[in-house]
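Supplementary Note 3. Input sequence used for the single-chain structure prediction.
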Amino acid sequence: MESFSIHGAPSEYILQEGALNQLESKLLERGLRKVLIVHGQKSWEAALPYFPELTKVEFEEYIYGGECSTTEISTIASIVRAKSYTAVIGVGGGKVLDLVKSVCHLANTPSILIPTLASNCSPWTPISVIYDESGVFIRYDIYPNSASLVLVEPMIIVNAPLNMLIAGIGDTLAKWYEADVQMAVIENKPVPLQISHYAAKQCKDLLLAHSSGAIHTLDAGVLNEDFIKVIETIIMLGGMVGGFGDHFGRIAGAHSIHNGLTVLEETHHALHGDKVAYGILVQLILEEKQDEVNQLFPFYRELGLPVSLTDLGVADINDEVFERIAHKSTLPDESIHVMPIGPINMQRVAAALGELEELTELLRTKLIK
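The predicted structure, written as discrete structure tokens, is reproduced below.
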């Protein structure tokens, strides 16, 4: 088997009400007495009611510009070096946390991550998605060091927008389908791949079992076990799939379909996790697993995840639309090609897109009846 590397977990992870009250003591026990806090405007407003007063640690704040871009990374890394900060604290969603991880790698300082959303596994993984200043994707970077500390205050996430949680559920559900299509064909899995495969299966099972109850928590504004299980599945289990599985536990067909959708301006408003969730269904059609689509359909409809291009805002669905998505999805460097299901080309994906539209229309009709 080809080699792979393991980035299993942050050095320390704490999820509990009042977790941020431990921030200063955790910084001091690490010898971190001068820190830069990087955040966005909305994320800071969300975290501030729970953020402790720091009396023994010197700090300054930096409001990021909205993108984890090469320019922003260089700018903040220069500040960290110039002012000799001993750590950087990231407070926010995935882009803020990715930005801080990249800065800390460049400046050779520890990262402390405080997520304000449960929309992806960024708090757990030593990976950043890098964009240019206009928000166009450039690359993924993987770092040798994971976060020194991850603190999760669940009440911040309870008060976060519901659509971000649902998108996180969609993105994390893909962990199972994109890992399984690669790992199921490996007969003698090394132990790390067994851990990754198990974590991926747990992503599916726990989300299907607890997502509905978690969403009711947001309506009530009170924590319950369903909500805790869902956010830990998104952050921890989602991160473990790639952390232990390396490239076997990362993206496959669903994310390629997401990338293909970006050629349609009508889908630009849709969240990343929503487009990945739609991509899961297309991947399953390519795998000839229509029964699995049937099983997921009620779950998608209950949560409001997209089951068709109409749900993503595409008004005029035709063969040309299928071909545009399929062309982008099947470019040579796309992850759809890691799936061991024979050669995948534009025609095959376009056909799968059309087949999914027909199938979901049929399922909708049955559900209405």
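The CA atoms of residues 28 and 121 lie 26 Å apart. The chain has 13 helices and eight strands.
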